[in-house]
Amino acid sequence: MRFTTTLENGLTFRNLLNLALAASSVLFSVVFIYCIYRLFQTYDWGQPFTKFLCFSGLFALCLTLFRHRQQTQSLPNFLFIGEALFASLVVIAIFYRMLNGYGDALFTAPTVDIGYTTEHAARLFFLQGENPYLSQEINIRPELAAEHRGFHYGPAMLLGYAPSAFFPGVGYKVMSMVFLAIAAISMCLLIVGNMKDQNRWQVRSTVLVALMLFFLPERLWYEVFQVGANDIYPVSLLLLGMVFAQRDKWLWAGILMGLSFATKFSPAAFLLAMFLRKDIRMMFLAGCVIGVTPMMAFLAWDYQSLMENVFFLRFGLNYDSTSLYSITPPVLHVLFPLAQLSALVYLLVRNFGRTLSTEETLVCFTLLLIIIEVTFKEIHANHLIWFYPLIAFIVATYRHKLFPQR
């Protein structure tokens, strides 16, 4: 019997080999990501070299999958059906385990500083009509100068978490759940929009694998449910903005991304940089201007207090034990901003004359964001929230393409 003989089910031995490679690619990617997320959960503070290795692994995985995106594949439906069933069971198990562990925290006030200062600032603004950037009581920390003891995030954060001013504790956590749902739905819509020509089982399995990877890290549940990190809000705005960009609704895309910038300028600034291209849409720029109006309003109210607390404080941060700065000789610290600038300039030059697809834009953004994160002065656990939906989107989209087909 020759190896090219067709089997009874219509598969050749070469097709079986490619099927095995595709299945192995999925299995390796999922297990690899799970191991990295466990390390992130275990070493949530300090351990900068471990975090560097974890991010390096994610960077290599995403880049390899993306570089193999052009290889053609013809995979049978039973593979997609099997993936969909497996991912569905895992998602159910994740929700069962995490809701049992962290569900009760939905009704408690945030305990991390980025959470309770947001709640405090919302009460100050909505109930007392005061400027939270002028307050010296929001961040009462001895290492902070008086001008840096106000609210440390953009004014659009106050809009997103406005209910926390009227319903302390539960209002904050409920809004975080809403933003978590928006992020998940937006990720799924991006996948469906990219797979219009694929069969329904291929689309379904991709969506379910993406949801599985998104909800897989325990750190996501701990940060959003337990301690009350607010990073899911600006990320949900970016993902929803990408959904509108994918559908050529450029005004709304710009509004949402501008609003994300007015909430927390990073990571929004780096996604906006991916749109600085020759074919940039004027309606997108107009939308960005509309989106940042909350920030402009507070700049008009008192520009110095906002600049001191939102921008100058961030750029003047001292490094801590979570960053590579803490284990690198001071003479070499200049390499970190140079790496950030080099990565940003490279992508700006690379993309300027191109019309990027949605997935290519998100891949460039994710790779840039990883470089920015590992070379920043802090690598805190709440920053990981930025990456979970992006990694899930990329790996689910290209999950069969880690190993070259034969």
From TrEMBL:
Keywords, in A-Z order: Cell membrane, Membrane, Transferase, Transmembrane, Transmembrane helix
Membrane topology of the entry: Multi-pass membrane protein
Domain of life: Bacteria
Pfam families named in the record: GT87
InterPro entries: GT87
Presence of the UniProt keyword Thylakoid in the record: no
Main location: membrane
Compartment(s) where it occurs, according to its Swiss-Prot or TrEMBL record: Cell membrane
Residues annotated as transmembrane: 16-37, 49-66, 78-99, 174-193, 205-222, 250-276, 283-303, 323-349, 361-379, 385-402
Keyword Transport: no
Family: Belongs to the glycosyltransferase 87 family.
Protein name per its UniProtKB record: DUF2029 domain-containing protein
Species this protein is from: Grimontia kaedaensis
